[in-house]
Amino acid sequence: MLRNDLLWVEKYRPKKIEDIVGNEEAKASFVEWLKSKRKSKKAVLLYGPPGVGKTALANATAREFGFTIIEMNASDTRSEKAINAVAKPATSYVALDNFSGQSQIKGKGNILFLDEVDGIAGNEDRGGVGAIIKIVEEARTPVIMAANDPDVEKLRPLKKVCLLIRFQQIRIPLIIALLQKICLLEHVKAEFEALERIAENSRGDVRSAINDLQSLSEGTHTLTLQDTVMLSSRNKDISMNDTLRGYFTAKSIAEVSSLLSYSSIDYDDFLLSVSDNLPKRYTDPAELAAAYDFVSQADVFRGRIGTENWHLLKYFFNSLSQAAAVNPESSKPFTLITPPIRIITLFWTKGKRTMLDGICGKIGAQCHVSHGKAKHEFVPFVKELLQRQKASLLIEWFKFTPEEVDFLIKMNRF
Amino acid sequence: MLLINAGLNYNREQCLYSIKSCNNIENLMDMISGILNTDVVFLQTCTRCGKDFACGDCKYDGSCSTKNLPFSCVCPQCLRDGKNFEKYLEKF
Questions:
Q1: Residue partners of B92: CB distance under 8 A and separation at least 6
Q2: The predicted structure's pLDDT at residue A1
Q3: DSSP A118
Q4: What number of CA atoms fall less than 13 Å from residue A408's CA on the CB side?
Q5: Which of A84, A182, A234, A321 could cross-link to A253 by cystine, CB 3.0-4.6 Å?
Q6: B85 touches chain A (CB under 8 A)
Q7: What digits encode the pLDDT tens for the residues B11-45?
Q8: What is the torsional sign of CA A36, A41, A45, A47?
Q9: Alpha carbon of A278 to those of A238, A275, A338, B45, B71: distances in Å?
Q10: Nearest CB partner across the interface for A177, out of B22, B69, B74
Q11: Do A173 and B63 touch (CB under 8 A)?
C-alpha cells in the first residue's frame, strides 16, 4: 500500500492557475477569455492530450476566481435529458451572494465544466451535443469543455460555438522541474537521471510522470536510475497474453498489484478477459462466485475512474488482485481465452449486424418508423410472413435483396 | 490576409505582427518560413533565469514533440543547476 493514502497527483494538484506547468499561451488565452466576460465566444473548448492540465485549469480557475464548479464527465450519462437537468439550472442563475452585499468574498456563480466531451456516446448520450449547444447559447455563466480529440465528427457543431484553446504535451525539462519540486517536498533524494527517465517515459503526461515517481519511490527516500528499470519494461508494452498469464499465476495480491501497475494494457479489455477466464481458473463454484464478486467491484471502480479519477485506480487494482488471489494454492495451468469473447463476438457478428441494420433502414423508410421500432416490432412479423410464404409483394415493397430475404428467414434472434 | 487567418494579429500603429492564436502554430510557422524562404525558430524563455535559448541547445531536442514552438521552458543550465531551484519553486 502507499506510504500515505493520498496520491501525489491529488496532493500536488494545482491550486492556482500559475501552478499548472507549461502551456503558458493556452492559460493566458483562457484567462483573457474569462476576464473579457466571454465577449468573443460564450464557451471554451480546451483540447489536447491527457495529463497536460485541461481539467486542472478549469478547477484552478474556479478556485481562483470564486466560481462554483459544476462538473459532468464521462462517467455521467450526458443525454439531452441529463444535461438539461444538471447543466441548465447551473448556467441559468447567478449566485445570490452577488446581490446580498454581505459576503466578504463575492461568489461569481457557477462554471459548468463538461469534461471529455469527445467521449459523448452515440446512443447512451442521445441528443447530448445538441443540448450542450443550446445551453451554451443561453448560458449566463461560463461554460468550459475539455476534449482529447477535437476532430471527432460529432463535435463539429460544438466547435462553432466555442473558443478553441489547444494544449500541447508538457516538455521534458518542465516535467523534470516539477518532479524535482515534489522530491524536495517529499524528502526523496532522486538522481537527476532517474527523473529524466521518468519524464521521458511519460511522453508529456504530467499525471503519469507523478504517478511513476510515487510508485518508484514508495517505501524509500532515494531514487536511482536503477530503480527506473521497470519503466522501460512498461514501454515494451507487456502483451495482454503475458499480463493475463502473470495475473492468473500470481501467488499474492501484492504480486498482482505490481504486475498491473507496470503493464500498459487496456483496462477495459483486461477486465473482460479476466471475466472470461475465471471459470477456467476456479473450478470450485464458491471460489468462482467470490472471484466474480471482486471482478464486479473492480468493474464499478473502472466506471468511476473514467479518464480522470485515477486516484481510484488503486481500488480497481485491489479488487482485481483479490479476484486473482481467492485461492492461490489451486492455481493450475490452463489455455487462456484472449481476446475477450465480447470483442470476438462483435467481430464475427459485424456482417450480420450490418445486414440487419440495412433491413431495419428499409422497413423504417417505408413504414415511417424508427430504426429501433423496425427492429423490435416489425422484423419479427416480416420474418414470420417470409417464413410461411415467400411474400413477393412484401419483398418488392420493402425492396429487399435476395440475401436480405434469406437472412431474415434464417435468422434465429434479433 | 492568409497570415491573419492563420492566427496572426497586426498592429497598424507599431507595424508589428504578433501571434493571436497558437492553435495552428505549426501551419503559421510553415507559412512564414515559405514567405521568408528560411526556417522560423521560436526562442524559448527560461522560466527559471529568464534567458532566451534555442531548442537546439537542449538535449531533449530529438524526443520533444513541441520543439521550436512558443514560448517557455527550462534552459539546460538551470535544469542542472540547483542554485536557481529555490527561486523557481517560488515561481511555481
A1: A18, A19, A21, A177, A178, A181
A2: 40
A3: G
A4: 29
A5: A321
A6: yes
A7: 888 777 787 777 777 778 888 888 888 877 888 88
A8: negative
A9: 21, 6, 12, 55, 52
A10: B74
A11: no
* Of the candidates A25, A54, A48, A29, the residue with the CA atom closest to the CA atom of residue A40: A29
Query: To the nearest whole angstrom, how far is the Cα of A189 from the nearest Cα of chain B?
Result: 13
Residue A136 has what pLDDT?
Answer: 82
Residue for cell digits 446580498? A100
Which one-letter amino acid corresponds to residue A288? L
Q: Which residue of B23, B63, B64 is in closest CB contact with A166?
A: B23
Of A9, A145, A155, the C-alpha closest to A70 is: A145
Sequence-distant (6+) residues with CB within 8 A of A56 are A13, A14, A20
Residue with cell 542542472: B80
The answer to whether A26 contacts B22, with C-beta atoms less than 8 Å apart, is yes
Cα–Cα–Cα angle for A11, A16, A22, nearest 5°?
A: 90
Q: Is the pLDDT of residue A380 over 60?
A: yes
The contacts of residue A368 (CB under 8 Å, 6+ apart) are none
- Helix runs in B7-60, H state only: 25-36
Q: Give the C-alpha separation, B42 to B56, whole Å.
A: 11
- Report pLDDT for A101: 44
How many angstroms separate the CA atoms of A332 and A282, rounded?
9
Question: How far is it, in rounded angstroms, from Cα A246 to Cα A163?
Answer: 47
What's residue A100's pLDDT? 47
* CB proximity A50 to B under 8 Å: no
* Cell numbers at B71, concatenated: 514560448
Average pLDDT over chain A, rounded to whole? 80
For residue A19, which residues of chain B lie inside 8 Å, CB to CB? 92
The answer to whether the Cβ–Cβ distance between B22 and A171 falls below 8 Å is no
Tell me: the pLDDT tens digits for A251-291? 777 777 777 776 777 888 888 888 888 888 888 899 999 99
Structural contact between residues A144 and A43, judged by C-beta atoms closer than 8 angstroms: yes
Measured between alpha carbons, how far is A30 from A150 in angstroms, rounded to an integer? 17
State the ipTM, two decimals. 0.77
Q: Which residues contact A159 (CB under 8 A, 6 or more apart)?
A: A45, A150
Q: What is the mean pLDDT of residues A352-373?
A: 88
